[in-house]
Each structure stands twice: as structure tokens, then as C-alpha cells.
Amino acid sequence: MKNLMMFISLSLLFIAHAQSQDTTHVFINYELQPQLIGGYDSLIEANISLLWLPEGCSEEGKSYVQFIVQKDGSIKDVKVIKGLDNCSKADSIAIEIVKTVNFLPGRYKNEVVGTHRVLPIPFYKRE
């Protein structure tokens, strides 16, 4: 019983210490959203040659890419949350496009914070 109490006490102490060391917060609600440097339109224009539907994909659409904008404006944890039907190649291209962007970070209570974002990346049929 004494060993069990010691184990529980040490476990709680370890958990409390680990939680106090966590300084990474990612906000969903924020006062000033992150700003894409150059704007969304310039991102699309700069990558227009990549936005044609890849071979084997039949329908136009958008890949929605989610990521975290960090406090320094860089991004991490990039993933597609809704992609084109039966077109994983387009989703891969969308991820690569999003990995090239930088942001002015978001703010909450006048402090720079990490934030979740989603960007739609459109794909078009060749004419």
C-alpha cells in the first residue's frame, strides 16, 4: 500500500511538472487572424501552373489544407482535411503549395499566438 501511494504521488508530481512546462498553445479563436504574406490571390497566381487537374482526376474542386501558423509566421502540421474525390495527387500538390507560404502571425490579447488555419487550394480542368 505504501508503494502504491508513493507511485501515485510521484505520478501526479510528474504530470503537474509536465503540464507546467507546456508553453505551446494553439488558438482557434483570436482577435487578429494570421495574414498570408502577399495575399491569397498572389499565392494562387504564383502557383497557377500547378493548379491544373492532375492526370487521372476528372472533376474540378478544392483541396482544403489545415495547418498551424506558429508565432514566427512559419507553418507546421500541414494536412488535407477535405480533398478532391479520388485525386490524392491534387491533395499532395495542395500540401506542397501550402508548405511554401509564410504568414504574419495571429494575435490574441495583443500577444502573438499560434493559430489553426485552413486554406482552400483550387484545381481546374485544362481547356
UniProtKB/TrEMBL annotation:
Residues 1-18 form the signal peptide. Keywords: Signal. This is TonB C-terminal domain-containing protein. It comes from Marivirga lumbricoides. The lineage of its organism: Bacteria, Pseudomonadati, Bacteroidota, Cytophagia, Cytophagales.
